[in-house]
Here is the input.
Amino acid sequence: DAGVTQSPTHLIKTRGQHVTLRCSPISGHKSVSWYQQVLGQGPQFIFQYYEKEERGRGNFPDRFSARQFPNYSSELNVNALLLGDSALYLCASSTGPSETQYFGPGTRLLVL
Amino acid sequence: AQSVTQLGSHVSVSEGALVLLRCNYSSSVPPYLFWYVQYPNQGLQLLLKYTSAATLVKGINGFEAEFKKSETSFHLTKPSAHMSDAAEYFCAVSGLGGFQKLVFGTGTRLLVSP
Here is the structure.
């Protein structure tokens, strides 16, 4: 079975731009969570979605938003990019919001 | 609030030696605890999880961890290190509840020398 997939794998943007990251969960998984991993640190929780509804939000500014589609795939959007948004963005899927999360390979974003 | 502390940003062992990676947690509710491994330029792979059943948890690749409530610890061990174990290891905690927000430690890089 295919695992969690994310696209693109790498991305370079400049300050002030907007970015959209995409995630497809494991087949049968209905919940998607997003994490930001800055170099040298552990991942930090951004959002969790389940059945297209936001179930949790971490301590990130409103420039960060997400949504989940009827096929359970998800997008993470970041507006007005800052240099500090440079990070590995990880998507994780689970069968439900309180179940074990399985991670994708991540999207590495560099903001110049 | 929940948190984890991983003692030692780097741990070096020789191939065949015991691996011990330390994790202490803080949680106001009974926790779920996890160990994930991250190989270079990859995402996170689940090694094992504790969800209030047996306190000794066996995972993949020969790793295991023991939940000790009295010490608020969940240390990861492997009897004999392989070169392929060289990676970054993250301990994470979540509480029971409507959704599982993982709170990660800062990670421990395991170095294995021949």
Notes: Chain B touches chain A at residues 34, 36, 42-46, 49, 90, 92, 96-107 (CB under 8 Å). Chain B has a mean pLDDT of 91.
